[in-house]
Specification:
5 domains, DNA Primase, Chain A, 29 helices, 51% helix, single chain, globular
């Protein structure tokens, strides 16, 4: 480890630094008398300026919130860096060489400074290249995603030319050595010698919290590029992907001020969010969200024990997205802030959502967030048939540990009531299950009251229904009709799918759409249902079954083939159309009955006096369900 910076050097850097110049990068300062300046405080919201700076003294103080200190304190609070990093940063800006106790070095400061300088020179080069004729493909990529030249400039987007060693030659002409460029991850070495790591790609600079470029993310544009879709700078002395969040340099002030951070999945998603007004958006860089990212976010959020902040994760609703939610959930206890999940309609990421529906849709995505615990609980329940006693009991066993794992004891009872409502079970029974799970979590080896990651992410039920998102992993072999459970619910789902696969035109597009929008109790059959829903526009094609078979996971392909040939119950030809529509209608009616039971349960628990509007809404929903049932039977 590097030694401590000598005290005399710290004092020298402080004395050579104009505090007003540093603060002025963040706050508009005006004269407040001889030797004093003032402006609006960057640490709290205020209408009239109470933040005063005295450059000659090298000290600032806010009479509104009480914050005060010297230039290093200011940088620590504003940029969320350590004291040593603040000193090293200012020393680098004034060209002062620091010395360390026992002859140590500044955490490889000299080498770091050279790598940072190389990255910055590369950043400027990439930006210039974006304006060249060769970069037309990059400009088109940005334009197709709703980003103009101003947006590219705001985020420093550039272009890496396709040539073998164009960047390397440029930087070596600037005085950087081949070893420095390799150490910065800008070049690699092969049989033909040194070559540029990024070639023919769109480039995003990855900056640390202070705004220094520590690495790059590069997106493939050309068909002859055999590399991955996204290519990032490798681990270097200045770039550690597990500790870097893309966009944090732009978002940190609003994250700190608003006590909110929005975690998205990619560079263009960050751009879309910021341009839509969600200026607290960040993303990981070529790695999964992890513990080190949480540490960074907590420092920026000022995530103290009061838990006043909020962390919002946006994920795709597909299998990968749900896995990402569970990974985030496994680390949720590390936050004092409340955690939420936001899933865009139709599975659109923020970039596509903005492109198709505008900035307001992105803002609604974030404002429509759901608590992470609610999201995970409902995901657990979705894998069970709640219409049966067995299904509800199994679902309770799966969801009770999630509720028990809620760290805030004042919130836990509310989620227990919500779980009881969703299950349609007695609150006392649910409460006892949650209490038992809580005792088990507390008694677990190494437990600290938060529960173990293994318990949090364990399968919901060993023999319970399998969700479509986990089907390919949990069921590696082909599924057959003979393996389906012999329950009334599964038989109805099977027969309805047989009708939809074998006689789609007789069932009709309207019934197909409605029947594939209902809940299924069996995961394998649900996979077939989802495929039909996705390919609904092809229901009148001759290769309808082949289309559905191609759209399901491999383990379900055999099941589709069997459903497509299994004989439907024998009926006279004149009654076949009646039967086909009837079996699809029965599936829809079952779902309406389930919905009715849910609404009746909510009405029973609702307080018509305290929430008259909500009570009326429930009554209206119930009337609509009844109307739908009557219309279905006519």
């Amino acid at each position: 480890m590097a030694g401590l910076i000598l005290r005399r050097d710290i004092d020298e850097v402080r004395s050579r630094t104009n505090l007003a110049d540093v603060v002025g990068q963040y706050v508009t300062l005006k004269s407040a008398g001889v030797g004093s300046m003032k402006g609006l405080c960057p640490f709290h919201d205020e209408r009239s300026p109470s933040f005063h700076v005295r450059p000659q003294v090298g000290y600032y103080h806010c009479f509104g919130c009480g914050e005060g200190g010297d230039v290093f304190t200011f940088l620590q609070k504003m940029d969320h860096v350590s004291f040593s990093e603040a000193v090293e940063r200012m020393a680098g800006q004034i060209g002062f060489e620091l010395h360390y106790e026992d002859g140590g070095q500044a955490s490889d400061y000299s080498s770091r400074a050279r790598l940072l300088a190389a990255n910055d020179a590369a950043r400027e080069f990439f930006i210039q290249q974006l304006m060249t004729p060769e970069a037309e493909v990059g400009r088109k990529f940005l334009g197709d995603r709703g980003f103009d030249a101003a947006a590219a400039g705001r985020f420093g987007v550039g272009f890496a030319p396709k040539g073998w060693d164009i960047l390397g030659k440029h930087l070596r002409s600037k005085g950087f050595t081949a070893d420095e460029l390799s150490a910065a991850g800008l070049t690699s070495t092969g049989e033909r010698g040194s070559y540029d790591r990024f070639r023919g790609r769109l480039i995003w600079p990855i900056r640390d919290q202070t705004g220094q470029t520590v690495g790059f993310g590069a997106r493939k544009l050309l068909e002859d590029d055999q590399g991955p879709k996204y290519l990032n700078t490798p681990e270097t002395l200045v770039y550690h992907k597990s500790q870097v969040l893309y966009g944090l340099d732009l978002a940190k002030r609003d994250i700190s001020r608003n006590r909110q951070v929005v975690v998205v999945e990619g560079y263009t998603d960050v751009m879309a969010c910021h341009l839509a007004g969600i200026t607290t958006a960040v993303a990981t860089c070529g790695t999964s969200f992890g513990v080190d990212h949480i540490k960074v976010m907590r420092r920026v959020l000022s995530d103290d024990t009061q838990g006043l902040g909020e962390v919002i994760f946006t994920f795709d609703p597909d299998a990968a997205g749900q896995k990402a939610v569970l990974r985030a959930f496994s680390e949720e206890q590390r936050f004092a802030a409340q955690t939420f999940v936001a899933v865009a309609p139709d599975g659109l990421d923020p970039c596509d959502l903005r492109l198709k529906r505008g900035d307001d849709a992105v803002r609604r995505l974030v404002s429509g967030k759901k608590p992470m615990f609610e999201f995970v609980i409902k995901a657990r329940l979705a894998t069970f048939d709640l219409n049966t006693v067995e299904g509800r009991v199994a679902a309770l066993r799966a969801a009770a540990p999630v509720v028990a794992d809620i760290r805030d004891p004042s919130i836990r009872p509310g989620y227990a009531r919500e779980l009881a409502r969703l299950l349609g079970m007695d609150l006392g029974e649910v409460g006892r299950a949650v209490d038992a799970s809580r005792r088990a979590l507390d008694a677990a080896p190494g437990a600290s009251g938060a529960g173990s990651e293994v318990q949090r992410l364990a399968p919901a039920a060993e023999n319970g229904p399998v969700s479509i998102t986990s089907l390919p992993e949990l069921v590696p072999v082909a599924i057959s009709l003979t393996q389906l459970p012999a329950t009334t619910a599964v038989r109805l789902e099977r027969d309805a799918l047989m009708a939809m696969l074998q006689f789609p035109q007789e069932v009709g597009r309207d019934l197909l759409a409605r029947a594939t929008a209902v809940a299924f109790s069996n995961g394998a059959l649900a996979a077939v249902r989802d495929a039909i829903a996705m390919r609904l526009n092809s229901f009148d094609r001759q290769d309808w079954v082949a289309i559905i078979q191609e759209s399901v996971p491999d383990p379900v392909k055999t099941l589709v083939a069997q459903l497509a040939v299994a004989p439907v119950p024998e009926r006279p030809s004149r009654e076949l159309a009646v039967y086909l529509r009837q079996v699809a209608t029965s599936l829809i009616e079952r779902d309406l009955v389930r919905r009715k039971e849910e609404l009746l349960g909510q009405l029973q628990r609702a307080d018509g006096t305290a929430d008259a509007e909500g009570y009326r809404t429930l009554q209206q929903d119930l009337m609509q369900v009844e109307a739908d049932r009557r219309a279905l039977s006519n």
